Amino acid sequence: MEKKIKKVRIVPGCISCGTCEAICPKVFEVKDVAYVKDDAEIEGNEEDIREAVDMCPVSVIEIDEEE
C-alpha cells in the first residue's frame, strides 16, 4: 500500500505546460506557472497527484509522504 501524501509543492522551473492541471485540476492550477491550490483536495486525489508527478516534463512537482 502506498503512503499517504501529506504535502504537494511546485519547485522553480515550471514551463506552464498544463499537464498537472489537466490530470488533477482539484489540486493544480496553471496561471503564469503551475501552483498547488490553497484549497487543494489531496486526500482522494493521490493517484492523480502521483500521475502528475510522473508526467511532469520538467520534474518540478514534489510530494511529502507520511512516514
Main beta-sheet annotation: 2 strands, antiparallel
List the strand order in the largest sheet. 1-4
CATH architecture: 2-Layer Sandwich
- Total count of strands: 4
Work out the helix count.
2
Task: Pick out the low-confidence regions.
Answer: none
Helix content: 10-25%
SS class: alpha+beta
Mean pLDDT: 95
For the record, the CATH class is Alpha Beta
DSSP strand (E) fraction? 25-35%
Walk me through this protein's architecture.
With 67 residues, the protein is an alpha+beta fold. It has a single domain (5-65), classed as Alpha-Beta Plaits, CATH 3.30.70. The protein contains two helices and four strands; from the N terminus they run βαββαβ. It has helices at 19-23, 46-55; strands spanning 5-10, 28-30, 34-36, 61-65. Strands 1-4 form a two-stranded antiparallel sheet. A two-stranded antiparallel sheet has the order 2-3. The mean pLDDT is 95.
Please provide a brief summary of the model.
This protein has two helices and four strands; from the N terminus they run E-H-E-E-H-E.
